Amino acid sequence: MTVVAVAFNKILVERFNQITGKVDIKNNAAVLDVEKQELTLGSQKQESLKFKFDFRVDYEPKIATIQLEGEVVWVDEKKNIDDALKGWKKDKKVKPEIMTPVLNAVLAKSNVEALILAKEANLPPPVQLPKVEAKAE
Prior knowledge:
This protein has helices at 78-91, 96-120, and strands at residues 2-15, 24-41, 44-60, 64-75. It is an alpha+beta fold.
């Protein structure tokens, strides 16, 4: 049905070396675990799934790393929650109609946070930013 929350539990920026030469930036987002969770919305209780995730930006060769760990809360019908949890426990897979919006939420929040952290640590942006180019007339 929908993502209701994305929160970080761990924010880490480590800088190992100064930037010299070409920098290769690699991003990776992964779901580490899925658990059932009960939410209290007002006086109602509703089941949800909590997706634990890890988002990393590695600046190579061994220049720096940004690591964000957190949780995404997904609310849906009980049957869809049970099916998703069963699929995760069986072979660490969740249907694309659930996993796609969950990963998009992770990427949206994590890329913005990584961009801010990269600026604070004086690192190149981890995502390609738009540029203006002049055209010859």
